[in-house]
Design goal:
Blueprint lengths: L1 E8 L5 H10 L12 H15 L5 H15 L13 H6 L2 E3 L2 E2 L8 E8 L2 H8 L25 E9 L15 H12 L8 E3 L5 H10 L8 H11 L17 H4 L7 H13 L13 E8 L4 E8 L4
Parallel strand pairs: 6-7
Antiparallel strand pairs: 1-4, 2-3, 5-8, 7-8
Helix pairs in contact: 3-7, 3-8, 6-7, 7-8
Protein name: Thiolase C-terminal domain-containing protein
GO molecular function: acyltransferase activity
Pfam families: Thiolase_C_1
């Protein structure tokens, strides 16, 4: 068994120190990106999509609005009220097509979970720990009972350039390759997934993820966001209407730098075990989680499931 633990404290940092550390962690040797480096790197990709006519400025702004609507339902979220597109577009500009409310929310926080193979579970808790006729976790699970012993069905990783090239092209992105590997190992299709945890440090990361994992057709991620924005206008919308980042993601829940991809996994475990409360997606059996590193530099995707016999 392996305990995976992460924590960070960046909202406690003065803004100047936060920016210094962020820039130092992603320095382009050619100096092509101005400070703040990370927002400008993602902004370059967002501008590329806008110039191609695949995305509008308003559709990008709708992403943090969706995140705020989702995050309001989580008791530990930083978000207490929904954003509007106007508020997002009126917030201070950070890069040409990126405003402050389109940046992952600085937060202090941590997360932890345990990963173990079936042999370990069987040896320490017995086979019935992961399956039962009633579909409920065995009492012998102890601390595992909260998630019912969620199973990893497949995973994939892929890498692209360490820094965004001056000319953006599809060849630099790796999420689609990672997702394809995960689907192949799990022997599943996007239509088999009930819940999605997609990395959303900036709106363009979320939009590209929608397309890479098969939720939206290529070039239609912005349109998908627009439709989701319309479908969730009512504060009473069902979680099943938008089974993506029900905790609010980096843009709504909070992003303690080294932790937020783990929040996707923890929310997936709650969804699959039926313990997500007012965020619960009805009948969630399988989940896909995606984490992104650098400026589209690395992608990791895992497909999780309820316990299976």
């Amino acid at each position: 068994a392996v305990a995976i633990v992460a924590g960070d404290a960046i909202s406690s940092l003065p803004t100047s120190e936060f920016l210094r550390r962020a820039d130092a962690g992603c320095v382009d040797p050619k100096g092509a990106l101005p400070s703040p480096v990370i927002p400008h790197g993602y902004d370059r990709v967002a501008s590329w999509h806008i110039d191609k006519g695949e995305l509008t400025r308003e559709q990008l702004a709708m992403v943090p609005v969706l995140a705020s609507r989702q995050a309001m339902r989580h008791p530990l979220s930083l978000t207490s009220a929904p954003l509007s597109v106007r508020e997002v577009l009126s917030s201070p500009r950070v890069a040409p097509v990126t405003n402050l409310l389109e940046c992952a929310r600085r937060a202090d926080g941590g997360a932890a979970f345990i990963v173990a193979d079936s042999a370990f579970i069987d040896a320490t808790l017995g086979h019935d720990a992961l399956s039962s006729a009633s579909g409920t976790p065995s009492p012998r699970l102890g601390p595992f009972a909260a998630t019912g012993g969620i199973v990893v069905l497949g995973g994939g990783e892929a890498s692209g350039p360490l820094y965004p090239p001056p000319r953006v092209s599809e060849e630099m992105f790796s999420c689609e390759q990672a997702a394809s590997a995960a689907f192949s190992e799990a022997q599943l299709l996007p239509s088999d997934i009930d819940w999605w945890g997609l990395y959303d440090c900036f709106p363009i990361c979320f939009v590209r993820a929608l397309e890479a994992v098969g939720l939206a057709h290529k070039g239609q991620g912005g349109r998908w966001v627009e439709q989701a924005h319309e479908a969730t206008r009512s504060t009473e919308y069902s979680p099943s209407v938008l089974p993506v980042n029900t905790h609010g993601g980096l843009l709504g829940f909070g992003a303690p730098w080294e932790v937020p991809a783990m929040y996707n996994i923890l929310e997936a475990c709650q969804q699959l075990s039926g313990t997500a409360g007012p965020r619960q997606v009805v009948g969630a059996r399988r989940a896909l989680v995606y984490g992104n590193g650098g400026i589209f530099s690395h992608s990791a995707v895992a497909i999780l499931s309820r316990p299976v016999d």
